[in-house]
Amino acid sequence: MTDFSRRAVIKATGVVGATLLPVALESQEASAQAPRPTPAQPTTYLFFNAEEAAFIEAAVARLIPADDKWPGALEAAVPNYIDKQLNGAWGAGERLYRSGPWQAGTPSQGYQLPFTPAELYRTAIAAINAELKAATPFAKMTGAEQDAYLHSLEGSGKDLGGVPSSVFFATLWDSTVEGFFSDPVYGGNRDMMAWRMIGFPGAYASYYDLVDHHGTTVTRAPTSLGEDVHGHVHADTTIPAHLP
Amino acid sequence: MAERLKPVDVVTVGVGMTGGIMGKELAAAGLKVVGLERGPMRDTVPDFQSPVIHDELRFAVRKALMQDNVKEAMTFRNSADQTALPMRRWAGFLPGNGLGGALVHWNGQTYRFQPADFIYKTHLEQRYGKDFVDPELTIQDWGATYEDLEPHYDRFEYLCGTSGKAGNLKGQIQPGGNPFEGARSREYPTPPMKEPYYGALFRKGAESLGYHPFPQPASTLSQPYTNPEGLKLQQCVFCGFCERFACEHFAKASPQTIVLPAALKNPNYELRTGCQVLRVNLDSTGKKATGVAYVNAAGQEFEQPADLVLITAFALNNVRMLLNSGIGKPYDPNTGEGVVGRNYAYQTVSSATVFYDDDVNINPFMASGSSGTVIDDFSGDNFDHGPQKFIGGAYIGSIMTNGRPIEFHPTPPGTPAWGLGWKQAVARHYNHTIALTVHGSSHPTRRNYLDLDPTYKDAWGLPLLRITFEFPDNDIRMSSYVTEKAAEIGRAMGGKTVVGTPRRPPYTTTVYQTTHNTGGAIMGNDPKTSPLNRYLQCWDVPNVFVVGASAFVHNATYNPTDTVGALTYWALAAIKDQYLKSPGPLVRT
């Protein structure tokens, strides 16, 4: 991860060394507060086909758009995050009770469809792409048209091959927020840009000395799980490391 | 065909906090104890260590430490005229799984109930008259008093090393503590945790309105501590990964840090993980348990004979175990008869959100699961309910447990649900917002109950537990009243925008509220209104005890764990001092 970040900075700034080496505090502050755009890496899609990927990339770019200060979900590689989730255990329905009978419940009874997340995405996007085939494909719409279309999914129970569009929208939104804010080891939140945006220090997680410095400005750059492999030391050897 | 194993003296169904304490103590008393834990073996090292433990997606969002819905879900409906459907994923509450149970992923908030809670019906009638309480509420006295339980509260807190400041020592009110609390026999084992900024701002706001703030009692420790079992705990580092996570630092009281090492050192104690107990076996009279039937991780079925069966799982699973074993008469809401499943209650939780200017850095990620500051002025019966049309109350606290951004990204009213406006509002408010917790009591009603689902089954073919629950009108009125008090404090804290969000029906399983599910196998003095006697012993099958928040007759204002700990030691004392000397019913009817 360190090497990756370093390369990213070099690429972004065109400067080797100067921004990285001296005065640790300054460079930490700079990296914590300023956006640090990385040139987009091509995503190797393992789950989405090309049509699905085109929809997802265009949709997340509207759900969390880039602005002049901070990148958005597309730049944060959220499509890559969603793709890897859908290709893995979560997509296949891990921890999802999947026995019937299936029936629609009340809103307070929660999700009651037989679709796994992977099935839900595939079914809904196919229905959307089929609907828009004769008109303008989602990825080709203007931003305002895309927003209007997403609002129509969000606000209605339009049938997307058995998936109510509001359920698909809610799932897509949850996935987008997860991909934006989860640890970069999951393939989104590239360069921890979403954490830098809000000032979350990530997996760093040790604040005993700072917690009573009320209102302090935290300037350290965030830490990913991938950078924290030596983060914990089982320090007190008088506590047995294992149960008897 | 089930393989019959060598008989033992005691078997515990579940090895979490209650099973761990019972197992350790009864093994120390010379009994052969087997602890059956359905989930995996897990330990602070290596299972809870960095870097993996600081993973919000895996633990907080995907709920890696929780009961696997694929194997064992529960069904839910708001009222008996609906068809209950499975909770296909956990969201509203999170039953734990694995060695140590919920005390691995809890926050460590360690409150005692009020003396009045244990004599609730008597107390309220004395103070407000016989006609004051909504007749829909099935409140009753618990059968044990605060005075009965005080030594056991004390023992549990010293096991955990709980950090706090006493407000009432043997009747003397102490500065800095909670002046409303019941009398304590001694000070907390360790001093309060450091006060984070969100706690300090709340303290100032609450004091300016004349309230009585105090540090939240925390079993995430303020300093290193060695407990009476000789086990060492460390100082909490405010990592911000507490609830839904396990502690990597030996700083949070959990069975792995406070009791299991002592149990496992004793050759009288045997732990078996990956063992799913299907039922308690009864003899032909139905009045005596002969042991339990369980299936191990490889799918082989066993019969474990035991003289004494302790049901020590999560509250909801305790009730299901009784129902699937045919112990006690199931409750029928139509007739009001039957006892198992009766008095299911929850917790009435709401919030107020305080938005600050962007030069006020709250740093919500510098948090322990139980750091922060609270007031008890509107809890339980600490204020006059005469002018109100409800009973019960809530504590109000600035007890933010984390700043993990997938789930914590507050935005003020009027913010779009997504898009650029949402993103810019998140960036603006993330580090400049305090969420206040309003943590309220929950009263049992005739219509809220637990039974077995007629349709849906678990992976072993047994019926799932069915929950029928809606917030009582009484508790909704309480929530409106106390949430407004919280919003007033928020304004006194200097918030630019303050939003109070009282609890409203319907109860929904889709948004996390709390995992304080209580009742269903309650204690009491009358076999017609409780399946357990005052010692948590089954009236119908005296060699079965059911230990947990399932025994709560109602759920009081507070987090349940300290009271579960007190009831565990209370039942243990009855087993050791009375039952073992003369096995049989400890209370004659």
Describe the protein.
The complex is a heterodimer of chains A (244) and B (589). Chain A is mainly α. Chain A contains eight helices and two strands; from the N terminus they run ααααααββαα. Chain A has a domain at 44-92 and 111-198. Helix content of chain A is 40%, strand content 2%. In chain A, a hairpin with a 2-residue loop joins strand 1 and strand 2 (163-164). The two termini of chain A are 37 Å apart. Mean pLDDT of chain A is 85; it is low at 1-32. Chain B has a single domain, classed as FAD/NAD(P)-binding domain, CATH 3.50.50.60. Chain B contains 14 helices and 24 strands. Chain B has helices at 17-28, 44-47, 56-61, 102-105, 115-118, 120-128, 146-160, 197-208, 255-258, 260-264, 315-325, 420-429, 473-492, 561-579, and strands at 3-4, 8-13, 33-37, 74-77, 85-86, 168-169, 172-173, 214-215, 225-226, 232-233, 269-273, 276-282, 289-295, 301-311, 342-345, 348-355, 373-375, 394-398, 433-440, 449-457, 463-468, 497-501, 518-520, 544-546. In chain B, the strands form six sheets. In chain B, strands 1, 2, 3, 11, 12, 13, 14 and 24 form an eight-stranded mixed sheet that branches. In chain B, helix 1 packs parallel to helix 14 (561-579) and helix 7 (146-160) crosses helix 14. The mean pLDDT of chain B is 98. Chains A and B meet through helix 6, helix 7 and helix 8 of A and helix 3, strand 5, helix 10, helix 12 and strand 20 of B.
